[in-house]
Structure prediction request, 245 residues.
Amino acid sequence: MHHSSRVQKQIGDPVSDTPILPRAKLQEIFDDIQNDMRFDHELNGCLNCGICTATCPAAHYYDFSPREIVQLLWTENLEAIYDAMQEKIWACAQCMTCAARCPFGNSPGGLIMIMREAAIKHNMESAKNVLRPFSRVMLKLISTGNQLSPDMINPDHFADWGPNISKVHAPLALLRKAIPMATLNTVKTAWEVNLKTSVELYTIWAETGVLNQLETIDENLFDVISDIMDEKRDDWSDFLDDQDD
Prediction:
């Protein structure tokens, strides 16, 4: 009796005997994706109906298809998965329209999040290229646990966004006078984070492996954050010593 399989055994260019990576490495990357606890909740199969791609905003502007991502993972097409992790997965805006519309209960956006994390873990150049322009934002979030400030979004720090950056770059001081919103914080007026909270957050980043992953992506940023947090730990230790006295 013949048993068919959804798993594609053939990987790589069918006219070439040289894969872009050894099969063992491709399998390791896929195993990290598949073993994520979210994977089975995000991928239930695929009817190949295309509703996810038809309703995807990113698919209208980029060479990107949520359906393609689901099909690659469902058929375990190892090399095509790796190839998609070099560019296509970074086009997703994480709006999760795909998850809301899929009749099979899949979440291509959730799967892409898992793939992005795997790309960081495996030190892929694509992850470095995408995250590098956001180093200032990452410094803010990881070193303080604070929210982003609107004035971080400006042409100087996001030049690669092109002319459309002007649509989100605005005279914030003037807007604050016209619309005095308490949440319209800037770098100068952003919340001050409690010292103990900062140290606890840094401990969480360290224990969960976030900082190890950051070091593989941006070593300079990792060094800056480590210096900031070492100083905060010293300050916290001094504070505790003062309390004992």
About this structure: The mean pLDDT is 83. The chain has two domains: 23-122, 131-244. The chain has 13 helices and no strands. The two ends are 81 Å apart (CA to CA).
